[in-house]
Amino acid sequence: MDQRTLILALKQTKAPELFLYNLLIGAEKCEKTEKFEIQTKSASRTRVPLVGRRENGKLIKSESYYQSLYKPGIMKPYKPISEDSLLAQKFGQDAYGTPASYTNMQLKGLKSDLLELKEIGLRTKLWMLSQLLVTGTLPTDKTEGISFGELNETIMTGSEKWSDPTAPIISQLRQSQLKIQQNTGMVVDHLIVTPDVVEHLLANNGVKEAMKSTTGHLFVFDPEKIGDNTAYIGFIPELNLRIFSYMDWTAEEGEVEQPLLPPGTALLLRKKSFRVHYAALAIRKKAGQSKTLIQASEYTKVEYGTKDEEDDVLRYYSAPLIIPVDAQGWALLKVLGE
Question: What Pfam families does the record point to (predicted)?
Answer without folding.
Answer: Phage_cap_E
